[in-house]
Write a structure and sequence with these properties.
Elements lengths: L11 E3 L11 H10 L15 E7 L2 E7 L11
Parallel strand pairs: 1-3
Antiparallel strand pairs: 2-3
Bound molecules: guanosine-5'-triphosphate and magnesium ion.
């Protein structure tokens, strides 16, 4: 099986939104899942964080997470 997976090469795409009170561990849950990292001194997130991870289950490629939007909404001026 190929170890490299192109960004858009997947069988299933799950967009996951993680919400909850401040300081409950959302950012660390995300970093543990996507990078296997945990930080005791993580800063409070302002706004929204995006991350993705692609996993293989049986012969299927499953992408989970949410990619940062490519375009920002254009302002009129
Ligand atoms: N002991 C322990 N500490 C954790 C765990 N998960 C997160 N923390 C700690 O809790 C604090 C807050 O974690 P964050 O992941 O930044 O929490 P958050 O939900 O993203 O917070 P906001 O961004 O403010 O909404 C950090 O100091 C983490 O190190 C855990 O499973 N065990
Ligand atoms: Mg956070």
């Amino acid at each position: 099986m190929a170890t490299y997976t192109a960004d858009d090469d997947y069988d299933f795409l799950y967009k996951v939104v993680l919400i909850g009170d401040s300081g409950v561990g959302k950012s660390n849950l995300l970093s543990r899942f996507t990078r296997n990292e945990f930080s005791l001194e993580s800063k409070s997130t302002i706004g929204v964080e995006f991350a993705t991870r692609t996993i293989h289950v049986d012969d299927k490629i499953i992408k989970a997470g949410h990619r940062r939007p490519r375009k920002k909404i254009q302002s009129d001026h």
